[in-house]
Design goal:
Layout: E1 9-19, H1 22-32, E2 38-39, E3 45-47, E4 56-60, H2 61-69, E5 83-89, H3 92-101, E6 106-112, E7 118-123, E8 129-134
Parallel strand pairs: 1-4, 5-8
Antiparallel strand pairs: 1-5, 2-3, 3-4, 6-7, 7-8
Amino acid sequence: MSAKHNIKVLFVAGFGPIVRDQNRSEKFYVENLGLSFNREEGGYLHTERIEGVKHFALWPLSQAAQSCFGKDAWPKNLPVPHSWLEFDVEDVEAASEELKREGYKLLVSSRKEPWGQIVTRLLSPEGILVGVTITPSMREKK
């Protein structure tokens, strides 16, 4: 893959549905599909044990809203995302500027999360909550 300008995707850092009905989603993924998750505060279930993705999680909509807007409710003036997808990139700031220049509305830009990830979030044309990130815990140590 060649980058158009300043964005060089290194890997998919994470993916998962945005959860509206926690019990129903948990039943589907845990009981029906047989996945096992680590449980975090607020209903965030995640695993790093599925091949092909570094992190798969059932992310409650309230937590996605908190991550983007600092509030538990998703704004009524924006489409509600059904899933999330994160791409780890070489340079979050350059990627953020490039996306902004291309006309995308950044929901949060180059923000450092408590776990050390630096993230810019936006909605894709399909309504996926997309993050371009630097996730130090997922980078290979050299």
